[in-house]
């Protein structure tokens, strides 16, 4: 025949087209997990998420890492996972929402929005979490393990905050004093505050003197704890963080609903403040999920599956490279206890820190994430990603092509919604996520810009032509 009529192709769900199997072209991909988008080379729908891929043995821990240049749709992809997983009974916990990217979605899912910021809501870094009262019911051995783990997490949190305000890591002695003080406070029935810990240090508690090795000399003790005290004062009401860390947690997190910590009200120019609040929220949420897991193990609470989303990792690493150890500790513990987590950042360059040692630790976040999701990255931003996973020349080219600037005609970045999934050294799976109408309303993180653009259009229509009249009287109208 001189002309070959191409066969028509249709797509449909198994409900709509049941009975039509086998399809002429089947997807070779596992049909497991959240439907994320179409395969870019046309072989069906790509489904993936860290929880269902883990449950089906496709990855060995329920953890994912999402990398890609700003504005290409990382948070949108994770919102898709959150939306579908919530429908399947998983409880999403957005541990820090800086923009906010997730508040509308979590509200639409009838979840809890916890707003934090100066004068808006406080979170106590020493708070053992919402399930504290129930942990007493655990059998002795589990109780012991849970106590040790939760204390460790709180200690990490406090040390991280002190790193931030002091601008240096704590030395071994200071760390031991903090650990000893937390142990003393844990004997008390009430939830401690940072001021209680400071009080212990100031009153030269004998247990603290013992680990400080002050040889019975008051002056020596005072000198040894001087920096620690400076740090604790800086975390109090007189310090740069105001009242956010020195009071009891203002809203208790619910354990049976989707939750988002909305920290978009924290001044965006204060990177240290944002990083500090992010850190405390990550620890608070991870501790809550850990407690729930212990209670479920002892059949004292329902077995629930949570997905923790930790967006904008770069913000913490940029505020202080010393936080890398704290993040490493939180995420390592989460992995060990098989808690599902998604970490999101921009590029591999975010993970390049002051020293080779710190950089290696940050790179470990990617190395240990079972599912790697890559959006557009320029060749320079690729960094040492190749040291973590093998990439073919074609894969590199594809990822770099998604990082090019917006197409002038359509205004859309060519890489928006395009991702490559990688597990191990096998070939990656390229996909394109298309938003559904239902998602669009809760997804537009550029809506503030859209609002501003609409206002500009309205203004332009009422403005006199250039050079023919006065500027608007209200300077607000100019913006
Ligand atoms: N697949 C898509 N289709 C259409 N629009 C999209 C898609 N993905 C994202 N967008 C839109 O692009 C904008 C940026 O998306 P998003 O906030 O998810 O990017 P991001 O990679 O998380 O950015 P950042 O690094 O700044 O956090 C949003 O307005 C979003 O609605
Ligand atoms: Mg984002």
Summarize the structure in words.
With 479 residues, the protein is α/β, with parallel strands linked by helices. The protein has a domain at 447-479. It is 42% helix and 11% strand. The protein is built from 18 helices and eleven strands. It has an eleven-stranded mixed beta sheet with strand order 2-1-11-10-9-3-8-7-4-6-5. Helix 4 runs antiparallel to helix 12 (323-336) and helix 5 (172-186) runs antiparallel to helix 7. The relative contact order is 0.16. Residues 466-479 have low confidence and may be disordered. Bound molecules: adenosine-5'-triphosphate and magnesium ion (MG). Residues 68, 70-76, 101, 346, 416-417, 433, 435, 443-446 line the site of adenosine-5'-triphosphate. Magnesium ion binds next to helix 2.
Write a brief caption for the model.
The protein has 479 residues and is an alpha/beta fold.
Shape call: globular
Quickly count the helices: 18
- Estimate the helix proportion, in percent: 40-55%
Radius of gyration: 25 Å
Which strand order do you get reading across the main beta sheet?
2-1-11-10-9-3-8-7-4-6-5
Strand content: 5-15%
Helix and strand string, N-terminal first? EEHEHEHEHHHHHHEHEHHEHEHHEEHHH
Q: State the total count of DSSP E strands.
A: 11
**Bound compounds:** adenosine-5'-triphosphate, magnesium ion
Unreliable residue runs = 466-479
Most strands sheet: 11 strands, mixed
Return the average pLDDT rounded to an integer: 87
Distance separating the two termini = 65 Å
């Amino acid at each position: 025949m001189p002309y070959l009529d191409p066969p028509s192709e249709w797509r449909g769900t198994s409900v709509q087209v049941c009975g039509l199997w086998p399809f002429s072209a089947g997807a070779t991909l596992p049909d497991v997990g959240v439907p994320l988008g179409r395969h870019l080379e046309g072989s069906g729908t790509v489904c993936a998420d860290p929880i269902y891929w883990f449950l089906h043995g496709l990855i060995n821990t329920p953890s994912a890492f999402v990398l890609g240049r700003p504005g290409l749709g990382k948070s949108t992809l994770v919102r898709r996972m959150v939306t579908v997983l919530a429908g399947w009974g998983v409880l999403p916990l957005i541990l820090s929402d800086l923009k906010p990217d997730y508040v509308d979605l979590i509200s639409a899912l009838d979840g809890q929005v916890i707003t934090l910021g100066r004068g808006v809501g406080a979170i106590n870094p020493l708070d053992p979490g919402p399930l504290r009262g129930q942990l007493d019911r655990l059998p002795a051995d589990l109780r012991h393990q849970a106590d040790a783990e939760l204390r460790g997490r709180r200690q990490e949190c406090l040390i991280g905050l002190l790193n931030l305000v002091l601008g240096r890591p704590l030395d071994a002695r200071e760390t031991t004093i903090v650990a000893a003080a937390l142990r003393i406070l844990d004997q008390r029935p009430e939830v401690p505050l940072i001021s209680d810990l400071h009080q212990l240090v100031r009153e030269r508690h004998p247990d603290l003197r013992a680990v400080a090795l002050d040889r019975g000399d008051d002056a020596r003790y005072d000198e040894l704890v001087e920096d620690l005290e400076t740090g604790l004062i800086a975390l109090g009401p007189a310090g740069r963080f105001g009242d956010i860390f020195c009071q009891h947690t203002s809203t208790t997190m619910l354990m049976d609903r989707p939750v988002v910590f909305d920290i978009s009200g924290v001044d965006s120019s204060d990177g240290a403040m944002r990083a500090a609040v992010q850190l405390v929220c990550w620890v608070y949420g991870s501790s809550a999920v850990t407690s729930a897991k212990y209670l479920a193990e002892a059949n004292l609470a329902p077995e629930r599956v949570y997905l923790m989303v930790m967006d904008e990792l770069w913000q913490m690493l940029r505020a202080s490279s010393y936080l890398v150890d704290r993040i490493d500790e939180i995420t390592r513990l989460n992995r060990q206890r098989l808690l599902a987590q998604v970490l999101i950042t921009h590029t591999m360059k975010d993970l390049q820190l002051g020293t080779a040692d710190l950089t290696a630790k940050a790179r470990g976040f990617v190395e240990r994430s079972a599912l790697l999701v890559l959006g557009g990255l320029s060749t320079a931003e690729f960094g040492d990603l190749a040291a973590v996973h093998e990439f073919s020349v074609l894969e590199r080219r594809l990822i770099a092509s998604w990082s090019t600037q917006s197409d002038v005609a359509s205004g859309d970045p060519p890489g928006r919604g395009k991702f490559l999934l990688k597990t191990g050294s096998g070939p990656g799976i390229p996909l394109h996520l298309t938003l559904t109408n239902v998602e669009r309303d809760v997804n537009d993180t550029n809506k503030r810009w859209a609002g501003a653009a609409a206002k500009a259009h309205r203004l332009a229509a009422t403005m006199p032509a250039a050079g023919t009249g006065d500027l608007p009287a209200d300077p607000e109208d100019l913006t």
